[in-house]
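Hey, I'm writing a tutorial for new members on how sequence and structure tokens pair up, and I'd like a real worked example in the thread rather than a made-up one. If someone can provide the structure for the chain below, I'll link this post from the tutorial.
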Amino acid sequence: MEISYERWQQAQEAEFKEYWDHRVSIAFGGFDNVFNYLGVDPKNDLKDKVIVEVASGSVPALMMVEGAKRRVAIEPLMDKWQKQKETCEAAGVEVVAAPYEHIDIGEEVDETWLFNCLQHVISPEGQLKKAMETSKVVRVFEPIGWGNGQPLTANTAHPHIITKETFTSVMGDFGKTYNGREVAHFHEADCYYGTWVKG
């Protein structure tokens, strides 16, 4: 499921128009739930780690992490969100405003995170493979459907339809399914989540 760079640019433009809520409190509330499902305490469990967050949006989950050696947020739209970029950098989060597929990861990182981003990318499978190649641990929390077998739908901002098989065909079945609306004020969609560890 790879799209052209031009189609990806269209998706980015549409996402920029749709994505307007940059409140840290709202983002952190959602990430509290993500970390809870993944069994991670971002204040204590990630000391001295090098962590990459892919397509982090304007408020990276990395901003909640304490004691990491290096935190890198990869977000192609971040140059358009100058205030949010400055907030990230002031918090010690490095920002790379480019597609993950186009970045050379020169060192093995401890963890790579993909949280609600794969519908927007050039190649979901390519990103999963790259994360596995460059990282000791890959954590995911990604929408996969609307429950009762209803798949996600594609649109301009979301060119890909992600399913559980998107993950299992590349990484094996390492995760679980969050049922949409299981937690108030959180994902309405069903999500595949879990932690893949390099063998």
